[in-house]
Amino acid sequence: MTSGELKIHQGQPILLKEKTPFGVGGRRLCFTHPDDPGKCVKVLRQDEDKTIRGKKTGFVPARFRRTYDNNAHERQILTKIFKRIGPEMQQHLPLYHGMVETDLGPGMVLDLVRDADGRISRSLRELISTGYELDQFRPAFDQFSEFMLKHVVLTRSFLDHNLAMQHKADGSWQMYMIDGFGDPAWLPVANWFRSLGEKKVQRRIASAWTRFEQFRDSGGVTQELIENSTWGQGFLNHRGETPTAKAG
Ligand SMILES: Nc1ncnc2c1ncn2[C@@H]1O[C@H](COP(=O)(O)OP(=O)(O)OP(=O)(O)O)[C@@H](O)[C@H]1O
Ligand SMILES: [Mg+2]
After folding, report:
1. How many domains does the chain have?
2. Which residues line ligand 1 (CB under 6 A)?
3. What residue numbers bound the domain in which 85 lies?
4. Same domain, 215 and 122
5. Are 155 and 81 in contact (CB under 8 A)?
6. Which InterPro entries has this protein been placed in (predicted)?
7. The predicted structure's pLDDT at residue 127
8. Cα dist. 68→74, 131, 170, 174 in Å?
């Protein structure tokens, strides 16, 4: 499914209002899909506290930034990446499965990352903040970086709350980028020339690990910060266990 066409789910909108989103970003609420534990539904936040992450200065009027539809942009990019890479994309990026109608507006259906035990995978930000040694994620980061470079996947910075870490049955980790796709540049020249694109991906890779180390050294996210924040700080509200997901 590649279009932005809205699908009606079993003749009526998917009911999300009464459910607890497993993830709350600055712009979107993320819910488990009612019929498929391997998928999630993302809707745009409509509340006044939503944030628009990105450059605060520049030529984009604030008015436009506030109404910017993150879902529309993301589905175009993910569809293009899928056309180029094919199913191998699923090793590190979510597939886009179409739009559905919900009682919170149009919902974008994407792969949901889960651990081997079935629970929703936590972000690198949550894991670092809750005492997991950063170094154990290095092999997963290196493998992820190699993939992004091989396929020249253009993204914004690799942010710790946009990286979901899947804990596999053998104890190792797999890194997925779940948000932040596309080249933020005004002129997408890096899309046109492979060598420019590669340089850009290399810059993302080079700056990421130091940022993760700095975040670890700063002590990570505190409970107080989560409570005073307008978004979930990359911490999950719940891990999509079946009884919770089906409740309500
Ligand atoms: N496909 C997924 N698999 C696992 N966890 C996810 C997935 N999508 C989102 N999450 C969790 O939900 C949180 C919020 O999701 P997402 O990053 O899509 O929201 P956003 O509002 O676009 O974020 P931002 O604040 O970066 O703009 C993430 O930080 C992550 O913890
Ligand atoms: Mg995010």
Report:
1. 2
2. 23, 25-28, 30, 40, 42, 53, 70, 94, 110-113, 120-121, 123, 161-162, 164, 178-179, 231, 234, 236
3. 1-112
4. yes
5. no
6. PhoP_reg_network_YrbL (IPR019647)
7. 98
8. 11, 36, 41, 31
